Write the structure tokens for this entry.
Amino acid sequence: MAYILVVEDDHLSLVAEEALNTGLGRAAARLVAGADVGGADAILARRALSTLLDVCDRHGDGVVILQAAGPLEQLVEMLGDIVITIVDGRSPQLATGAGDQALFVVSAETERAAQVSRLGRMLFGEGRETPTRDEYAMFAAYGAALRSAAFRGGVGAAVVDEVGEVIALGAAEVPAFGGGHYWCGDPHDARDWLLGYDPATQVRHLTVQALLGATHGLGLGPPPTDETVGKVLAEFQRREGAVGVGLGTQAAQTFESLGRVVHAEMSAVLTCARNGVATAGRRLYVTSSPCRQCLRHVVAAGMSELVYIGVPFKAPPEFLADSVTTDPTVPGRLPVRAFEGVTPGLYARLFTRGLSKPSVREIQLRLRGLESA
Ligand SMILES: [Zn+2]
């Protein structure tokens, strides 16, 4: 089998070490030193990778570990479905679509070495590494996220009991009478995408219109025409984008909550309520950084911890600082922490037994295909 690992500098030696320890990846470890061709142009990068693969092939069962950058990174992406990127919890790559990407998230501090060694064992070891509680729960939350067709993107959540079993799921979606959300194929399905517009957009427009109407009435601004409302909303969007936090600011989150979509966290809590399952003392896993609206509900539901994957949650808003914390050593508050480990996008690939993986020969053929194209 062959893997291409895109590894950050400081993780590289740990993975290589693990490869050596297991004996399976000796060829791979030898290749590590020669693999740093970051900054080379595309042709050089192809040549370097080609050489690496040839050496791998001669050693039989080989593994390629690359510290990829520049053209090589693009090349590795083109070669397909075997790219694993090791990132820490503050990586910008986690900001969007974290669940879809083949990322392995390590902590910023002390646990890092052990975590990377575990990834090494998963890839090169002869034992059988299975998911952690966190990985299992986040994968379930991700599965729930996939049923969402909300305009703002799918988010999923899973409630987990004291031993790690998933006891309830939730997704960000329009509520349906009778409980939960519409399912695909429901006769009266009225989700936003079927309506063809996002009702939140309408409410946003009306809110800004009312504000402009009030300021205009006081002689402080222009009349609330469609054009001025549009300009204010565009400016608002631009400012949100400029600070680089997307939906992270309070004003943006307040606007976002004006629609009818039930957020995944609340959806999961309501799944518990519908079924008479306690939420107190349970953990919540979410495929996105939690918003303020959800946080207060999770606190009120008595949950013991919130684990998220996505835009780093730096600190609770001031008005929730009495009940929410990012510091796990602070007692008496809901701890919010970033997910670590095998992300949902990589879960099936790493934990499916006997899953076939591309051979060195196959990657060589793909590379030659690229060269002749
Ligand atoms: Zn929310």
